[in-house]
Structure formats: structure tokens, C-alpha cells
Amino acid sequence: MAMDSGWVTTLLPVRLYDELEVEIANSIPQRAVRDFKDWRLCYSEKFVMPKITMHFRGADVEWKHENAFVRVNQDYECLVMDNGFHIYGGVAQVNYLVGFDVTRKTVSFKSAEI
User: Fold this and answer.
1) Measuring CA to CA, which residue among 19, 9, 66 is closest to residue 39?
2) Residue pLDDT, tens place only, 10-62
3) CATH number for the domain including 86?
4) What is the DSSP string of 43-101?
5) Angle value at C-alpha 98, between 95 and 104, nearest 5 degrees
6) CB 7 within 8 Å of CB 89
7) Beta bridge partners of 33
8) How many domains does one find in the chain?
9) Range(s) of the domain holding residue 73
10) Has UniProt tagged this entry with the keyword Zinc (predicted)?
């Protein structure tokens, strides 16, 4: 998976994304808004985000609300993921210090929350 802080969304393989979207939607009791503009999963009411953990070799990164959803206008918050290439986008990296060790070919994550 490529790490790209300049790419906003996280892109996952089609099947993985589809399964994750269903799990997220099933975990949030509020009614989902589907396919709002270019966003596939949105909500117009406040909600509690389910636990999402991204698993990497040697690192598990637990996402907070701001790593998975973004307010796209005054009415909707939408999931900042889609299917496509394998990219760990910039929103997923919010409030994390991301370290790259090119010699060991590893990535590390440290929470930057105070």
C-alpha cells in the first residue's frame, strides 16, 4: 500500500472496500445517505463512528472520527475512502506522526494528539 499524504482519500481494493463500507454502515444506526455527489457513504445526523483499525505488518493504527469522515458541506459528513488503487491517504494520517525507515522498509505511526 502506498502512503500518500497529498492524496486525500484512502483507496482500498474493491472487495475490501465494499465489505468495510457495509460493516461501517451496519454499525451506525443513523440513516446513511448514499452516493451524495462523489461521496459513497454520508450521514446528515451526528453519529458515533465504529472502531476502525488498519493493520500493517508491525503496526495497528486505530482511526478516530477525523481519520475516516470529513464534513463536505453544512449538511453531510462522508466517508473518506473509496475503492481503487491501494493508497493510505492524507486524511487517514491526520493527528499521526508517520515515520518512514527506507533502510528497513518500514513505516511507523505515533499519535500526535495532546
Assistant:
1) 9
2) 999 999 999 999 999 999 999 999 989 999 999 999 999 999 999 988 889 99
3) 2.40.70.10
4) ESS--PPPPEEEEETTEEEEE-HHHHEEE-SSS-EEE-EEESS-EEETGGGTTEEEEEE
5) 165
6) yes
7) 42
8) 1
9) 2-111
10) no
